[in-house]
Amino acid sequence: MQFDQLKRREFITLVGGAPAAWPLAARAQQSVLPVVGFLHDGSAEPRAHLAAAFRIGLAEAGFVDRRNVMIEYRWADDQYDRLPDLVADLIQHRPAVIVTPGSAAAAVAAKAATSTIPIVFSVGSDPVKLGLVDSLNRPGGNVTGVNYFTQELGSKRLGLLRELMPGGADVFVLTNPKAPVTESAVSDMQAAASAVGQQLSVLYATNNKEILAAFPAMTQTRAPALVIINDPLFTTGRMQLVLLAMRYAVPAIYTSREFADAGGLMSYGTDLPNIYRQVGNYAARILEGTRPADLPVIQPTKFELVINLAAAKGLGLEIPTTLLARADEVIE
């Protein structure tokens, strides 16, 4: 009898303790998976499709989140000053690689925080000028990634606006002064405008309230037009920007098709989901053992012009046939 009671007690103890043991075992299994740190100065919801494209890039090499790799996401929600703390928190997880797709500020913060953990960025401005790499072909150090030329395309966007409004317009540039690329981006835009005798006015916005205030300032001039300098703040608030441009009848050209898809007039830039996918590819290469120094910075060769005809109609604009013919996509 005593033996049977002992067996029953052992059985109850084993069964009763199992539910507590299973989560511990699962956590132990997860902890041995390589960690990929994902750092961005924007917010998650407007970039869900881009984060998915990054995961596709990893999956193309066989790395699937929570199966054989763990992705730790950190979003600064458009607050640059949070980045140092966020990257410090990621480093506590001992990541095998940190990725900073679409965020120059996050890339700079990550590089400042570690010289040993591999970092894969994608930035729209020159990564050499940002101090991220020694050169495009030979990055050196622990950092490499993708340069998608958003800043360098500023003069092209100005030209597209002139073609749209050949009678001339007072052109404004909207930028975030907190971004690390602002000074050089504005300088490049002003040089491009000066070369064709065009004057630019620069407006600054660091939050939604300042974005809202920028549009009445534009409408004090004749026939205003707007060029957006790429920034996560504007991508997060792209719907607000598009609606304000329509409300104040300001023709605008944006940096990626996400704006045109949201109802913006025109966009000229690279395919952002593909850029995030390429970051995933490079992160996978590093997980497989390749050093960042041996991975040259990728430079896309294709850029797309997207025109939204519904937006043009709402603004009372007739898109020149020459411009329509060059468009990669026309949204009806």
Report what the structure shows.
The protein has 332 residues and is an alpha/beta fold. The chain folds into 2 domains: 33-148 and 271-294, Rossmann fold; 151-269 and 303-331, 3-Layer(aba) Sandwich (Rossmann fold). Helices cover 44% and strands 17% of the residues. It is built from 13 helices and 12 strands. The strands form 2 sheets. Strands 7-6-8-9-10-11-12 form a 7-stranded mixed sheet. A 5-stranded parallel sheet has the order 2-1-3-4-5, with helices on both faces. Strand 1 (35-40), helix 2 and strand 2 form a beta-alpha-beta unit. It is elongated, with a radius of gyration of 24 Å.
Q: Name the helicity range.
A: 40-55%
* Named CATH architecture of the largest domain: 3-Layer(aba) Sandwich
Give the radius of gyration: 24 Å
Which secondary-structure class do the elements indicate? Answer: alpha/beta
**CATH class bucket of the largest domain:** Alpha Beta
Q: Spans of 5+ residues with little confidence (pLDDT < 50)?
A: 1-30
Short description:
With 332 residues, this protein is an alpha/beta fold.
Secondary structure elements and their pairing?
Elements (H helix, E strand, L loop, with lengths): L1 H30 L3 E6 L7 H12 L10 E6 L7 H10 L4 E5 L2 H10 L5 E5 L19 E5 L6 H11 L5 E6 L6 H14 L4 E5 L3 H11 L5 E5 L3 H5 L1 H10 L4 E3 L2 H5 L4 E4 L2 H16 L16 E5 H6 L6 H6 L2 E3 L1
Parallel strand pairs: 1-2, 1-3, 3-4, 4-5, 6-7, 6-8, 8-9, 9-10, 11-12
Antiparallel strand pairs: 10-11
